[in-house]
Design brief:
Layout (H helix, E strand, L loop, with lengths): L1 H14 L5 H8 L11 H5 L10 H23 L15 H9 L10 H5 L2
Length: 118
Amino acid sequence: MNATVAASSADLAARQRTETLGALLADTNRRDHPVHGGQSLYYGLLGFGDAVSQPGAELNAGWYERNAKIFAKLMMVAKPGDRIVIVYGAGHAYWLRHFIENTPGLQLVDPAPYLAGT
């Protein structure tokens, strides 16, 4: 798992020299991005532990809780008809999308078309 993250970080560092910020953000926030788009990294950590201690499961539970609280705070300030732009780490994108897509009355707008033009 470390090798995947290291390779992705090295690729991003190299691409920062030649690509626009919008293009980099659009790529990093893709649903199929190998590191940030899904939960594969976090789910891979579920295997860490034994019958007594499951640190991988605890890390995943904490990550879910952190994202649920971020979304709950967003819902506290959102009013019907609001358009909201959220800017935070791409690792949170999976849960942000999940919460928006499963909350009645909300509609997710993919930022990629807006980022690609910058």
